[in-house]
């Protein structure tokens, strides 16, 4: 990639832009406190240069033009505001009054750009927001390196009011990609290399290397085969008595299991493929040993594997209820025989 100017001149320009977005009052506070953090060799500027290069590499609309990104991209400017505000927030632990500057700068970003990144959130290197209007990143969010988030994404708390003041927002691993208007709510963990499709509402932790999408219900789709997109699809599911009926496509050697909310397999339940007819697969649930509900975390999910591909149906309707009833009925029969 060919950049239009040298790295040194870009750092100088970035430093100049940082000062442009500080008011005279804020600059005076910095000088009064003896803080001059924004030279071209500062950590803040270097981090923003990393962000800038990530924007240029990952956003095809940028065309590699760092100067255009610096001067015109509201999404990149939101990162500039965040990095400055976060710097002041961290400095507030040692310099009284710095946290007030952090809040001021965050509010300016929110009002002028329509992008709300809390100054206390922790965001790793090479962060890209694309078409970021309407994005909200909450106070206790932690975001890893090389993450890419599209517009309208909410990384928020699960509740509406009365949320605890401790950890209440998501934690993202490295290289996470989130599609537009997705909602990630609560203190959940999103593993490395997770892809979350647009419009998903995610309230449970997601393991690394998976793809979350909505096809009538939320699914986690994972391929163990490099450079090949998953070709298996599940369009819907129906729970009936002790069976799950799948409307699906692409399965050839299907195996299935029940996993709990921590994605730990429940070995006491066998899932047996009974029959398939074109796009319909019937799975029978069989309880092979007694099981204690307190030993696993509800709700339960249905995990499907086929030729290196893996799809986890997140809490299919009535699945948890059905398996709980199976356990209760099995215990009842044991008591009667005793």
TrEMBL record:
UniProt keyword DNA-binding, yes or no: no
Keyword Acyltransferase belongs to the record: yes
GO biological process, one term: amino acid biosynthetic process
Entries under InterPro entries matching the protein: Hexapep, LbH_SAT, Ser_AcTrfase_N_sf, Trimer_LpxA-like_sf
Catalytic activities: L-serine + acetyl-CoA = O-acetyl-L-serine + CoA
Record's keyword terms, sorted: Acyltransferase, Amino-acid biosynthesis, Transferase
EC category: transferase
Molecular-function annotations in GO: serine O-acetyltransferase activity
Domain of life of the native organism: Bacteria
Enzyme nomenclature, EC number: 2.3.1.30
Any one Pfam family match given in the protein's UniProt record, by short name: Hexapep
Similarity-based family: Belongs to the transferase hexapeptide repeat family.
Protein's recorded name: serine O-acetyltransferase
Protein source organism: Teredinibacter turnerae (strain ATCC 39867 / T7901)
């Amino acid at each position: 990639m060919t950049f239009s100017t040298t790295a040194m001149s870009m750092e100088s320009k970035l430093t100049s832009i940082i000062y442009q977005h500080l008011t005279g009052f804020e600059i005076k506070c910095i000088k009064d406190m003896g803080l001059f953090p924004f030279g071209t060799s500062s950590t803040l500027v270097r981090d923003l240069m990393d962000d800038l290069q990530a924007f240029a590499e990952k956003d095809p609309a940028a065309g590699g033009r760092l100067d255009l990104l610096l001067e015109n991209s509201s999404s990149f400017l939101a990162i500039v505001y965040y990095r400055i505000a976060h710097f002041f927030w961290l400095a507030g632990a040692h310099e009284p009054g710095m946290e007030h500057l952090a809040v001021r700068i965050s509010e300016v970003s929110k009002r002028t750009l329509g992008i709300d990144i809390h100054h206390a959130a922790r965001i790793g290197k090479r962060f890209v927001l694309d078409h970021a209007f309407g994005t909200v990143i909450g106070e206790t969010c932690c975001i890893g390196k090389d993450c890419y988030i599209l517009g309208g994404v909410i990384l928020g708390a699960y509740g509406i009011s009365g949320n605890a003041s401790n950890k209440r927002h998501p934690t993202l691993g490295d290289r996470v990609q989130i599609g537009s208007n997705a909602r990630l709510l609560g203190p959940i963990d999103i593993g490395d290399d997770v892809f979350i499709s647009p419009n998903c509402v995610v309230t449970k932790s997601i393991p690394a290397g998976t793809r979350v999408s909505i096809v009538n219900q939320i699914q986690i789709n994972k391929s163990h085969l490099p450079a090949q997109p998953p070709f298996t699809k599940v369009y819907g599911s129906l729970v009936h008595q002790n069976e799950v009926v799948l409307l699906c496509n692409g399965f050839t050697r299907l195996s299935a299991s029940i996993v709990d909310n921590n994605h730990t397999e429940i070995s006491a339940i066998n899932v047996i493929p009974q029959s398939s007819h074109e796009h319909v697969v019937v799975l029978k649930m069989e309880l092979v040993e007694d099981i204690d509900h307190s030993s696993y975390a509800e709700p339960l999910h249905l995990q499907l594997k086929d030729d290196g591909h893996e799809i986890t149906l997140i809490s299919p309707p009535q699945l948890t209820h059905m398996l709980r009833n199976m356990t209760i009925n099995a215990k009842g029969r044991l008591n009667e025989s005793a």
